[in-house]
Amino acid sequence: MPSQLEELLSKFKYIRTLNQDEVNKSLSLYGFISLNGEDTVSKENRAILHINKQNLTASDILSYNNFKNTKDNDCYHWGEGSLKTKDNASDYKFNLIYPATDKHLSKYEYQNKNFQVIETPEIYKNVVKPYIDYNINEGSIQWVYNIIQGKTEQEFVRFNEPDFLVLPDMKWTDETDIKNMYLLLLFKDSKFKSIRDFNSEDHLLMLKNVRKYVEFEILKKYGNTSIEKVKLYFHYQPSYYQLHLHIVHADNEINYKSMLLGKDCHFLDTVINNMEIAIDYYQRCNMVYYLTDSSELYRRIKKAD
User: Fold this and answer.
1) Sign of the torsion angle spanned by Cα atoms 49, 55, 255, 91
2) What count of other Cβ atoms lies within 10 Å of the Cβ of residue 98?
3) Residue 224 region, left (φ>0) first, then alpha (ψ -120 to 50), else beta?
4) What is the rounded CA–CA span in Å between residue 6 and residue 235?
5) For 164-175, b where at least 16 C-beta lie within 10 A, e where not — what string?
6) Closest CA to 220 of 268, 273, 269, 166
7) CB 234 within 8 A of CB 195
8) What fold does the segment set 114-304 form as a domain?
9) Helix 296-304 / helix 129-137 crossing angle, nearest 10 deg
């Protein structure tokens, strides 16, 4: 009996290529799932197929073979497989997003129009915070809640504490390869959406304790790696609005490339230092980052100007 993923992929109708990244060896395809014989795309059936670890074309991917479903969580479906058209190609990993939202499209489509945003506390309060609340109410991070609540992906959880859990990022495919370490520490309390929510001595103590836990518990599991060889950072804006800390080996090539591409990183030690200077630092400071002109958040900020 075919899996859900197998059925979805068999009905994937390709429309166009969103992005082909030869440096990072990835490909993102846009299309729709025709479960009921539909011949046009809609918000209810549109899908994104993202493939890692291969320099491939759309026609290559659409001739997939021998794939297996590795996990599912809400609108996300992961798998791996090989190709009919490339006998010498190694296995590839892919992620099917269905149904795909506007935010998904903005994330995966190639963009060359990035603009600086200087987010004041007023802009955060009047524009960004309502945008965050809207996204959460729309169910955009249900997949995160599923992990926290123990409903999905529990086989990938490496540490599970009362305040947070730790699991490998999908980009870290071989956990014996320490120099490519990429872990995510996911905070469980839903009140923490981003670093903007830090505002008390309790929060500062929490961050200091997390740093100690990384150094004396997590890194011991992975070859006694020195904390000086690991980057601990938050993104702002984050890719999803449940607070999470990136734990990445300093020599990780994928991480280095993503930072070159303009990811806005806030290192844990810097966040701690800022809060030691002023406990409400992240309520008072301006936050500078870059958004594409097609993103919903950018449009809201410009409209409020």
Assistant:
1) positive
2) 24
3) left
4) 34
5) bbbbbbbbbeee
6) 166
7) yes
8) HIT family, subunit A (3.30.428)
9) 140
Q: Where are the domains of the chain?
A: 4-101, 114-304
Q: Give 173 or 267, the one with higher predicted confidence.
A: 267
Q: Which residues contact 143 (CB under 8 A, 6 or more apart)?
A: 73, 74, 75, 76, 152
Instruction: Give the C-alpha separation, 168 to 219, whole Å.
Output: 13
CA neighbours closer than 13 Å in the CB half-sphere of residue 68:
2
Residue 292 CA: distances (Å) to CA of 105, 114, 297? 12, 4, 9
The whole-number pLDDT of residue 150 equals 95
Query: Which architecture characterizes domain 4-101 according to CATH?
Result: 2-Layer Sandwich (3.30)
Q: How confident is the model at residue 252 (pLDDT cuts 50, 70, 90)?
A: confident
The C-alpha angle 234, 108, 303, rounded to 5 degrees, equals: 75
Q: How far is CA 186 from the centre of its chain?
A: 12
What would the mean pLDDT of 207-220 be, rounded to a whole number? Answer: 96
Q: Is the dihedral of CA 246, 250, 252, 254 positive or negative?
A: positive
